[in-house]
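User: Can you predict the 3D structure for this chain?
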Amino acid sequence: MGAVPVYGWRLAPDGLATRRQLRALGLRPGGQEVAAELQRPRRDRGPLVAYLYRIDAAKPVRPMTPARQAALGKAMAARRTCPACRVDVGYCIPPSLGACVTCADAAAPVLAA
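Assistant: Here is the predicted structure, written as structure tokens:
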């Protein structure tokens, strides 16, 4: 990636969009290089950076096939299944806990008052 133009917050020209904006339009970057950079200043840290892509060079989003949908369903089921009790808990297991809330609470040491 060479030198790309840098624009301030809300000052990017028409014809450029972030990944999320492309997705909202039903598009994807499609292998193109970053066309520009958008920077939003912050007080205590470095600026927030968003990469911009050309809308005219973007490609349509690939359609969801039955095989991809099945694979996504299996992956989401694995994220919802507690490794300790082997129950589908209905929500994604937090990686910080490593188990469902019930199992994580049972494994936590009880603090004496």
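The chain has a mean pLDDT of 91. The longest strand covers residues 48-54.
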